[in-house]
Amino acid sequence: MTTLTQPQTGTARTHASLAGQSLIHAGRLVRRWTREPEIMVQSLIFPTALLLMYQLVLSKFLSASSGKASIEGFVPLVAVTATMFGAMATGTSLHAEAENGLLDRWRAMPGYRAAIPAGRLLAECVRTFGATVLLLLVGVVLGLRWHTGVLSVLGALLVPILLVIGFATMVMALAMSRAGAKIVELSSILILLGMFFNSGFVPVDQYPGFLQPVVRFQPMSVAIDAMRGLISGGSVAVPVLYTALWSVGLTLVFGGRIIRSFRR
C-alpha cells in the first residue's frame, strides 16, 4: 500500500529554509569565534579568571558579611558578566563585518536576510551555554554545591541564554550604527559598573538606600537571583519573570532597528 506524503505548503517551506539558513550562519560564526582570541578571552578565559579571583580573594570577607556561601553568588555573577562581555565582543565583530563589506556580500546572495541576525542570535546562545557550563564546572571545583534537583541545573544554564537574547539584540543594533564600534565600547562601562552594583556581589540591603531599587531590578541582578534560586533553592519565579521582561523589552525596542539596518 503506497503512502502519499502531504506536500509542504509555501509557508512551511519558508520557515524550514529560514531555519536552515539561520543554522548555517550560526555554525559559521561559532567556528570562526573559536579562532578569534578576543572573543575566546572575553567569553571563557576572563570569566574563569574573574571567578577564581573573586573566590580566592573575597570569599571569606563576603561570606562572613552576608552569612551565605559567596560562591553561590559569584558563579551567577560571573556567568551573567560573561554573557554580556561575550556579546559585546561579537558586537564589535559584527561592526567589522559591516565595515569591510562582508554583510553586503551576504545580503547579495540568494536567501533570507533575516537568517543573518537570527543565526547570530543562535550562535550567541551556543556561546553563552558553553561559557555557563564551564563556569558551573569551575564553581563546583571551588565548592559550589547544588541544593535542588537535576532540572534546576538545566534551568540555571538557560537563564543566561534567556538574558543574552535581548542583550545581544541590543548590541547588534548598536553595532550596526555608524559609530557602532565606539558605542559598543562605551557600553562596556555600564557592564563594569553593573559588576559592582548587583545582588551577586553583596546583598542588596547592604547598598545605600537610594541605590537599592536600581541594584535590585537591573538586568544583571534579576538574572543572578534567578540562577542563585535554582542553585540554592530560593525564589525563582519572580527573578525569571523579570529576566524575561528585560529580554523581551530589549528585543522589542532594538529588534526593529536591526531589521531596518539590514534592509538599508
Write structural notes for this entry.
There is one protein chain. The protein contains 10 helices and no strands. It is mostly helical and 264 residues long. Helix 6 runs antiparallel to helix 7 (180-196) and helix 6 (150-175) packs parallel to helix 10 (237-263).
Topology diagram in text:
Blueprint: H1 10-33, H2 37-66, H3 71-99, H4 102-108, H5 115-141, H6 150-175, H7 180-196, H8 212-217, H9 219-232, H10 237-263
Helix pairs in contact: 1-5, 2-3, 2-5, 3-5, 3-6, 3-7, 3-9, 5-6, 6-7, 6-9, 6-10, 9-10
Give the low-confidence spans: 1-8
| Largest sheet descriptor | none
Output the number of helix runs: 10
* Form type: elongated
Q: What kind of oligomer do you see? A: single chain
Classification by helices and strands: mainly alpha
Q: Which range does the strand content fall in?
A: under 5%
Helix content: over 70%
Order of helices and strands: HHHHHHHHHH
| First-to-last CA distance | 53 Å
State the total count of DSSP E strands: 0
What is the domain total for the residues? 1
Mean pLDDT: 81
Q: Please give the radius of gyration in angstroms.
A: 20 Å
Organism: Nocardia macrotermitis
GO cellular component, one term: ATP-binding cassette (ABC) transporter complex
Membrane topology: Multi-pass membrane protein
Keywords: Antibiotic resistance, Cell membrane, Membrane, Transmembrane, Transmembrane helix, Transport
